[in-house]
Amino acid sequence: MTPTHYLLLSALLFTIGTVGVLVRRNAIVLFMCVELMLNAVNLSLVTFARIEGSINGQVMAFFVMVVAAAEVVVGLAIIMSVFRTRRSVSVDDANLLKY
Amino acid sequence: MTFAVSGATLAQTTLAQQGAVGTGETVVFWILGPLALLGALGMVFARSAVHSALWLVLTMLSLGVLYMAQSAQFLGFTQIIVYTGAIMMLFLFVLMVVGRDASDSVVEVLRGQRLAAAVLGVAFAALLVAGLARSLTDVVPAAPLDPWAPGGGAAGGLGQVIFTDYLFPFELTSALLITASLGAMVLAYGGKGRKPRMSQRETVEARFRGEYSRPSPLPGPGVYATANSVATPALLPDGSVAEDSLSDILDTTPVERLRADRNAVSGRTRKPDAHALTGGPSPADGADEGDERSSAGADTDDTAAEGPVNGSAEQEHPSSGSGTNGKNGRGEDNGSAPVGNDGVTENPGTDADSPEEVRQ
Amino acid sequence: MDPRNGWGDSVTTSILAAPEPVQAAQGAIQGNAWLIIAIPLLGAAVLLLAGRRANGWGHLLGCATVIASFGYSLALFSSTGGGEAAARSVHLFSWIPVNSLQVDFGLRIDPLSLVFVLLITGVGALIHIYSIGYMAHDQRGRTGSANTERRRFFGYLNLFVAAMLILVLGNSFVTLYLGWEGVGLASYLLIGFWQQRASAAGAATKAFVMNRVGDVGLALAIFLMFAHLGTTRYSEVFARAGELPAGVLLAVALLLLLGACGKSGQVPLQAWLPDAMEGPTPVSALIHAATMVTAGVYLIARANPLYSLTGTGQLVVALVGAVTLLVGCVIGCAYDDIKKVLAYSTVSQIGYMMLAVGLGPAGYALGIMHLLTHGFFKAGLFLGAGSVMHGMNDEVNMRRFGGLYRYMPVTFVTFGLGYLALIGFPFLSGYYSKEAIVSAAFGAPGWQGWVLGGAAVLGAGLTAFYMTRLMLMTFFGERRWENRTSADGRPFHPHESPPVMTGPMIVLAVGSVAAGLVFTRGDMLVSFLSPTLGELHEGHAVLPHSVIPVLTLGLSALGVLLAWLVVGRGPVSETRPQRVSPLVRAARADLYGNALNRAVAVRPAVGLADGLTRFDRAGVDGAVNGIASSFGAASQVLRRWQTGFVRSYAMSMLVGGVLLVAALLSVGTP
């Protein structure tokens, strides 16, 4: 086993997250799939840090975590606002931009 | 926590072997890797949103341990504490507020979305894996880091790098966090000039001006000492049931579960009995049979309406004299029809087994 | 000295007078000859710009200017002397100085132009005086104020006189063109003077457009002259006419003829002249009888050095004249409108003039002589017709007239004298001029003599017929107007016209009678014109010279007799007979001239306009709109991509991502 396996795992997780974004309709679950993608990227960053032997990858992953936290806060607040007015968290219901 | 500790010790033992991946780490990977994948798949395919959140928690925990296994100890703990502990909890809180939704239905609205997603997913994964495998064969990892060294993976080492080399991004992300929390507050409590809450006097005036559908609140359930269910309807002065006091939700419940409560207090079919509590002989016995028949008749037209059940029961009376009607199949509970006058009839297991039954 | 050389195109035996050297003007009178033009022009400006303030005295000013011009031209005439009347040039100003094109505005005072100037101003003055009375109560004005209309009328008349004078006095073809266009404009304004009548407006436009067709010919001729000779001044062009190649010379000659046909109403551009009778009668008299329509003859006479060099060109001119004179005669026999008959008579008489100038040196001067006599008697006839109309509530249908000689004696006498002159009654002016033309026509060589001479003689007979018919129907016979009312409901009360109208008629009648005697006295006119038009040469006639006058008079008498037989003997029916021969039917339809115009010119033009409109609408607009609608259609199709579903967008992103990764992997370094 080589660290490459971590990267493969990360790629698979990322793909699963992507497919989840396409398939799920609940906005919150969709958001969680995005979080999964971020985590997959974090894993690959840490793996690269380990391969390189330097700390930079971990620092990047750290900042990714911070930003992800902020993003989750704001995103969920937005979903709550939408839910309050439209009583629905389905992303298919937010289709006002259709032709 | 045990996982975390073992992960740290595993990283320590590989200090001796420069760059190679130790067996401990291999074991950890081959256990937690598939677990993470399983969690991801479970998250995507779980029907309920809460289940999805829980599967994701599994994935994140696995990833946290994997970080530790790669001598990113601080990051691993941060993952578990912040990511799993805070962020996923936040998700669960929001799911609690939102509740169930039509978005959970299985039917896909967009044509071909699922198929395309599957195909593209497989293709994407294949491409990435192929690319990674092709470009990263024969990669020799470097020696694992000393956690406490300035370039190490523990808190001290990470902190040293962050506060020196990456100070500016750190400041930026701090600003970002502040902005995010402000934004969340604005979104949650802001918006266009919300009206201040009306005082009671204002509410009453609005009510009597006709801004609401009725000036008085809905009547509460008519709970006598004879029944303590909130499904009990209230009675009007002439003894008939006040329809406003009937609850929508409860009316959608299969009627045989509530029939007993209704029958117990419905004014027409049953007179209030002064001696109810004493358990003495009551003229209600004979009425029981009639009740059953009429309530069986009431079965036929009781779907979700809060209509005057008793009135129809009266009409159905002659037709159901034989006691047979179409919906007897459902009325298995008739057997356990309320006998006693106390009206504490079967509280049929009205606990919501599944959403489908409660919401007809 | 072979007279037939006039038909050849050899240069060496050119028998025209060597282009006389042009001298500068001498003396104050000649030097200020531009006043002749300027005074009427100024009068026109004042009358048209002054507005209603000039209503009271406008007509007087209009007459005064033309009378002043006439006086000046008499002075000019006497100042040039009789004998050695060489051409004199008055340079006014440099007009178009553009590199190689140097056009100066100058005047050329020579016998030809002097003759015309006298005619224009003299007859013009008489008609101006006549108009004072004729337009006195013009009720058909726009504003209802008669004086406003009369003032406007005099303004336009003055403008016409000024433009015509520029035409004849100019010393280059370009100045001639300026005057040419000016008279075209004046003609348009005057024909359509009663604009509110659709027929008048249409006739004015028709006249202008048909003149335009001729003007194109004139313009092209000037272009050719300039292209080959580098100049358009008369003296230079005529001096170097021999340099032009034969083909170019012929082309110039034919193009000038085209211009003349347009302005003079010759076949094939004759259809506008009868319609021009929509204008007031003084306009018909001045413009469409005496002066403007003679501008074509003037042009050809002026360009005689060119024509003398091309026999084919001359032949074409003569043939056009012959055809036109016959066409005019035939149609004139079938009309009942007194003015239209006179209009076709004009067409026919100008055909005579064209025939004359087309005969070469044998006929230039004869054509001019006939032009002058025609000016007198035709103007007199038109004024007489106007007088008749004036007394008959503006009725023009001769079938409503009859027996008017007792009620309008002066008109009858003057009209009668003009009539006699026109049909060539011996010793009146028309006799001399027409006879000379007929003789000269017979003098053409070979078959041309027979054809042209025969046409001229036949035309004389027909002229006598229709004019006699006109006289009989109008002045003799039973009074068909008694106990009837005119078109506007008033009963007929024929009366003589006021002296302001009869005076000019009398003067013109005197001219009709005496002019011939004056002109032929010692060949005065011909010799006067010879410096410009060359010596007159008698041709070898195919018939003996004594036979021709007898033949002509005999045919004329026959025509008179026939007319008397047709209309003089029995009563004239009030309505047109419907069962008539095909020739009469054709003549009533202008010998299908208008139908031909419609088929050849109008319908293709309208069709072209329709086609262009359709092309514009369907093609150009269709293309533009089509592009727009194609964009619309494309967007209609493409907008379906905006489903509004976030997941569809995510799908697109993923597709793009997959493609990118695949591309990178395929082209990346292995």
Topology diagram in text:
The complex is a heterotrimer of chains A (99), B (360) and C (670).
Chain A: H1 3-23, H2 27-52, H3 56-86
Chain B: H1 2-13, H2 23-45, H3 49-69, H4 73-98, H5 113-135, H6 155-164, H7 167-189, H8 200-209, H9 248-251, H10 255-265, H11 284-301, H12 309-319, H13 355-358
Helix pairs in contact in B: 1-3, 2-3, 3-4, 11-12
Chain C: E1 23-24, H1 27-31, H2 34-50, H3 58-80, E2 88-98, E3 101-109, H4 111-134, H5 146-169, H6 173-191, H7 198-229, H8 234-239, H9 246-264, H10 272-275, H11 281-290, H12 295-302, H13 304-307, H14 311-332, H15 338-357, H16 364-391, H17 409-423, H18 429-442, H19 447-475, H20 499-520, H21 524-533, H22 547-568, H23 582-588, H24 593-638, H25 646-667
Parallel strand pairs in C: 1-2
Antiparallel strand pairs in C: 2-3
Helix pairs in contact in C: 2-3, 2-5, 3-4, 3-5, 4-5, 4-11, 4-16, 4-20, 5-6, 6-7, 7-9, 9-12, 9-14, 11-16, 12-15, 14-15, 14-19, 15-16, 15-18, 15-19, 16-17, 16-18, 16-20, 16-21, 17-19, 17-20, 18-19, 18-20, 19-22
Overview of this protein structure:
- The complex is a heterotrimer of chains A (99), B (360) and C (670).
- By secondary structure, chain A is mainly alpha-helical.
- The longest helix of chain A has 31 residues, at 56-86.
- Chain A has one domain (3-89): Helix Hairpins, CATH 1.10.287.3510.
- Helix content of chain A is 79%, strand content 0%.
- By secondary structure, chain C is mainly alpha-helical.
- Among the domains of chain C are: 320-573, no CATH class; 595-667, no CATH class.
- Chain C has a three-stranded mixed sheet with strand order 1-2-3.
- The longest helix of chain C has 46 residues, at 593-638.
- Chain C starts with 22 loop residues before the first strand and ends with a helix.
- The chains are: A mainly alpha (99), B mainly alpha (360), C mainly alpha (670).
- Chains in contact: A-B, A-C, B-C.
- At the A-B interface, helix 1, helix 2 and helix 3 of A face helix 2, helix 3, helix 4, helix 5 and helix 6 of B.
- Chain B: It catalyses: a quinone + NADH + 5 H(+)(in) = a quinol + NAD(+) + 4 H(+)(out).
- Chain B: Residues 199-212 have a biased composition (Basic and acidic residues).
